[in-house]
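Extended Data, panel c. Modelled sequence:
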Amino acid sequence: MALPLAIQASEPAPEVRFVFAAPSPYTGRFDATRAGLGIALELQRLAREQALPVRIGLRALPLEADRAEVQALLEPQPRVLVVGGSTWSQGSAAPLRRLFELGGGISLQGVRATAFATAGGAHTGGEMVVLDSLRSLMGQGALGFTSGQRLMVFSTDERLDHPAGTFTPLDCWAMGQYARELLLQAHASPDPAQTAALASRLGVDLTYFRRFPRTLASLPPASTKVCAQINALAGPTRPGLAAAASALDRLAPEIRTLFAP
């Protein structure tokens, strides 16, 4: 399905902006940042494959952020806003709470917004982090959405079959599915029929579990590739984040040096 002629002729590519509230006060790792990079890498790959251009923005919440810096994270408003944070005591960790405490008065009217979270275990409150974030975003006027019937929570500890701080191939498959939803939202039409046609083209549907891979062999190569990229970045000193971020067509330098070598 071709883009409307008006979009082709006059509008810049829509921005999908990631805002990371990290590190985790529990692990000291930048798990949410690495998950966001994985999603962004998949988004860029899909945008190129589908010839649906997007501009990817990466923003990081400074640990000592003030209101002006938080305002700079959220303004000017993007087409799609993706907020990522971590879990603490079965709820949102302090950096994510600070983002909404300082930025809650900023209007996000008309912005399509979503959220993901990282958590130590599968049942330690990650879903509450996502839901709290969505409520706060909608309270600022944003149009909240999820990846169909799945909330994006990635657990990075409390497992016997993978080292702490790593994402599984299935996690990275889910990142790719989430990226499809982000691409759909970035290019959604005011006409529901056109958006439904684009969803079909991108392989986006509500019942993601119908396409759920049942074996490692059935995973697409992109899933294992992105896992290798972001798992290599684990560690509190943020090794290699700059190299991974440089693979993206970013809009502008980040507010501070989160992605510096």
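Residues 255-261 have pLDDT under 50 and may be disordered. This feature is highlighted in the accompanying rendering.
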